[in-house]
Design brief:
- The protein is mostly helical and about 110 residues long.
- It folds into two domains: about 55 residues; about 55 residues.
- Helix 1 packs across helix 3.
- The longest helix is centred in the C-terminal third of the chain and has 38 residues.
- The radius of gyration is 29 Å and the shape is elongated.
- The N and C termini lie far apart (about 75 Å).
């Protein structure tokens, strides 16, 4: 199945909420979104089974999740900066390289 896992949790939730509002049938929503009504039915079932989790997350857990997201974002920024600095350092090293035989001649002249 090439499509397995292609839908984000946010997208699934949006579709399930629309199904629960009962403004359109699962078949209509599925046809419009290009998703099988059976898949939508599975999402709805999973959503309803896990609905209690929306109220079970404590403030500490929420704060920990936010902190983890901020740390991941910061890590991504720092990794990008490291990549940029590494690139610049390599470029500078390449620009400043002198032929090895010239460096040897200068060392011999100093002695």
């Amino acid at each position: 199945m090439a499509n397995y896992g292609k839908y984000t949790p946010e997208y699934k939730a949006k579709i399930v909420v629309e199904v629960l509002r009962e403004t359109n049938t699962m078949s209509e929503i599925g046809a419009r979104e290009g998703v099988s009504p059976k898949i939508i039915s599975n999402w709805r079932h999973e959503f309803l089974e896990n609905a209690y989790r929306a109220f079970s997350v404590t403030k500490d857990e929420r704060k920990a999740q936010e902190t983890a997201q901020q740390a991941a974002s910061r890590e991504q920024e720092l990794m990008a900066k490291i990549g940029q600095l590494t690139y610049e350092l390599d470029w500078l090293k390449k620009k400043c390289e002198l032929p090895d035989n010239g460096a040897e001649d200068r060392k011999n002249r100093r002695k």
